[in-house]
Write a structure and sequence with these properties.
By secondary structure, the chain is an alpha/beta fold. Helices cover about 55% and strands about 15% of the residues. The chain binds NADP nicotinamide-adenine-dinucleotide phosphate.
């Protein structure tokens, strides 16, 4: 049997990156608490993991579920604390800023930003106990925005800022906070985006369609290409494992060639040039 390396909590572990991280960390000898939202997901994850992995029902926008997960996990930690919290849960919301539903935008921020803060605040006492780590799952779109991805990108930009603030606030306590910024990764998110795009298109007014229909077509084509280049979620889980096992983790880890490229573009290329290139790419990607 592998040596117990301490306890970690990962949110959004029902599929994709979260599930892969949960299973890889379980195999590597961590006691994994894996946040899922349904009994089916709980049973599905348990059937793939060692008996040590403990799935917990945790919708990160539900204060009662956060409190209850805190109590359950707190009892199991036996005073040893959490060596890591991995804030991974996430949703997407395509659409133009002009016609975006405000309720949809609020929900995007509620899950991708506020939910992570709520979970972080709730579990910080146990992270402190183990001088643990916090890993926030951002995105290549946390430094670079394409049209019609504004809501998702806004949430990931906010997560970047929250990560920087937390890292600087918690460094004196010996708690490292890192953000991973994957590019395209194979996961359930792509089918969800397709469904959301279809739903959004069905609800578009004629005016919205006239203004953004062509851009939508270009973005959909770019998305298809990005999906074809997606790296496996194991590549992300390997970086998470590296962060957990490094003595001094970095602040930010772009993952995948597209994320590394966009991270440089977002930081060093002037906006006017980026705007021009994005416009050209959208024109070339049409039809
Ligand atoms: N795949 C990519 O290309 C990519 C690239 C960059 C960043 N990311 C980020 O990676 C993270 C994981 O995404 P993924 O690609 O693995 O997609 P995914 O397979 O769709 O996983 C998303 C996870 O988040 C969970 N979730 C959604 N709303 C939640 C809530 N309110 N409370 C708790 N959990 C919730 C989902 O649970 P349910 O199954 O219950 O809905 C699911 O487990 C996200 O933060 C995403 O933004 C993904």
């Amino acid at each position: 049997m592998t040596k117990d390396k301490g306890s970690v909590l990962i949110t959004g572990a029902s599929s994709g990156i979260g599930r892969t991280c949960a299973l890889m960390l379980d195999q590597a000898g961590y006691q994994v608490f894996a946040g899922v939202r349904t009994i089916q997901a709980l049973e599905g994850l348990s059937s793939l993991a060692s008996g040590r992995l403990c799935p917990v029902i945790l919708d990160i926008t539900d204060a009662i579920q956060i409190r209850s997960a805190c109590q359950t996990i707190g009892l199991r930690l036996e005073g040893k604390g959490l060596v890591a919290l991995i804030n991974n849960a996430g949703i997407t919301l395509p659409g133009s800023m002009e016609f975006l539903s405000l309720d949809g935008f609020r929900k995007e921020l509620e899950v991708n930003v506020i939910g992570h803060l709520a979970v972080t605040q709730a579990f910080l006492p146990w992270i402190r106990e183990a001088k643990g780590r916090i890993i926030n799952v951002g995105s290549a779109l946390g430094k670079f925005v394409m049209p019609l991805t504004g809501a998702y990108a806004a949430s990931k930009f906010a997560l970047e800022a929250m990560t920087d603030a937390l890292r600087r606030e918690l460094l004196p306590s010996g708690i490292y906070v890192s953000l991973i910024a994957p590019g395209s990764v194979e996961s359930a998110i792509w089918d969800k985006i397709d469904a959301e795009v279809a739903q959004m298109e069905a609800g578009l007014t004629q005016e919205a369609n006239e203004r953004y229909g062509q851009t939508g077509e270009s973005i959909a084509n770019l998305w298809k290409k990005a999906h074809c280049r997606a790296i496996p979620p194991e590549a992300v889980a390997n970086v998470v494992l590296k962060i957990l096992e490094s003595s001094r983790p970095q602040s930010r880890y772009p993952i995948g060639p597209d994320a590394r490229f966009l991270s440089i573009v977002g930081r060093f290329v002037p906006d006017s040039l980026v705007d021009w290139v994005v416009d050209k790419i959208l024109t070339l990607s049409r039809g």
